[in-house]
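Re: folding output
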Amino acid sequence: YPPDDMEEFERMRREKRGFMAGLREINTALREMPRTMRQLAPVQICTWLGLFCMWLFYVPAVARHVFGALDPQSEAYTRGAEWGSFAMSFMNITCFGVAFLLPKLAAATSRKTVHAICLVCGAVGLLSVYFIGNPWLLIASMVGVGIAWASILSMPYAILSTSLPAARMGVYMGVFNFFIVIPEIIQALTFGPIIRTFFGADNPRSSLYVVIIGGCFMLLAALLVTRVREPAERDVPERAVIEADEHTPLTTSVSAQPVPSTGLVDDESKR
């Protein structure tokens, strides 16, 4: 629907044009970030740290841990890499199937409950790699990650969208993606030195350890989801509602118009 005051709307658009105006808008959005978004930020950071650990190290972990390959040029390593990629394809297959079930599950419970359970499935999938010796069981590990992946692509945004002011929806959705990109950049720049320092440059099990760390990150994200407060969860005491009704007169609607006035519906009093 068009704004009530189109001139004011156009004036605000002109003021927000330009690079510096965009930075000021982002800075303001960060300072005035809704509570739900602040609570979702660490969830996203931990989630995507876990995913990045998987994407970078799952295949070499399979090759070295499951297939026992020490030489990256060996046939065993090649077979392990192929099996790792094959298992990861089931992540996307599972994601496609689970995505259709998530709305119904969220309606029956809550979005954050569904997201927490899905993240736990992903964490179990990554942590289970440590105990897997049979290549076929790798499919099960990626089924767990696929369940998490379906929720990661939808539930945080569904939770967030109900808590954002409509006028800043685009800005906040863009800022929300900071919590995905920034930790990935930091991880890409620091994980190499961290792995060499703590696990050893030539440690054949270092890739497996990073996958396990990824599972721990995802498990932490699942725990952090439980503290997210969805707008629909705001409890208003019954007594407060009754007292408000006692002091607020009941008035009838001037218009049957179901949307904010746009000036397109004539006022009966002016006819």
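--- second protein (sequence, then structure) ---
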Amino acid sequence: MPTVKSNDADIYYEVHGQGQPFLFFSETACSGEIWKLYQVPEFAKDHMVIIHDYRGTGRSSKPSVDYTTRMFCDDAVALLDHLQVKDAIVLGHSMGGRVAQLLALDHPERVKKLILASTGASFPGGAGLPLQMCKEMIEWGYEKYLREHTLQVGFTDEFAKSQPERLEEFFKVRLAHLGPVEFYLRHVLSRQGHDTSARLKDIRMPTLVLVGENEGDPKVVMTHRMSSDILAQGIPGAKFVMLPKQKHNYFASDPDTVHKVIREFISM
């Protein structure tokens, strides 16, 4: 099992294909396995695709300490050092986009192009666990919460009704490497405590900001649509693309369109 040592954790990783390095960061508390559904088969055709499990997820170590997005960034740097990668295309989805921002800001020599998918620079208000999330997790239980919340924010009703097999395939992978609830909460806290809002102007590499057209949750103060707008306006020269009729998990619901947009961007 390939792992790299990063401070107090062993980080599991996989490399697929050859060519320009392409590093993927997944959403909150999600292992790198999720990228093997669609993105690895597509981009490993002509790239060196690098996926990994965050500490606290999948096959990586699960130290019981406070997690931060900077810690996840340091783990990624250790992985890039191990693989001797200097100039990767870096894609971060949701929480992964926050980690990707830190990598671009603190290690710009590592990032050739940056793709920020349905993510943001900060959260309004104080850090901590969202009250609505805690309420639903208590009412539904951990695994049911994760499934129901992901279904609500990630997929349109039309997709869920017309593509039940693809939806179940997604959840089979998403839930297969689900870690103990402790580490899910540690990831949420790291996400909520992230703030790069004052540093967006310092991101200088070509940047693509992606978001789904239907990403708007009335129960939250800051939606992915709103936070993506802030990124696109704050990062000099950022390219902004809104994906029609999509919600948060468009990497699974409409991979062909997403891949087309990404390939156009990385070929520029």
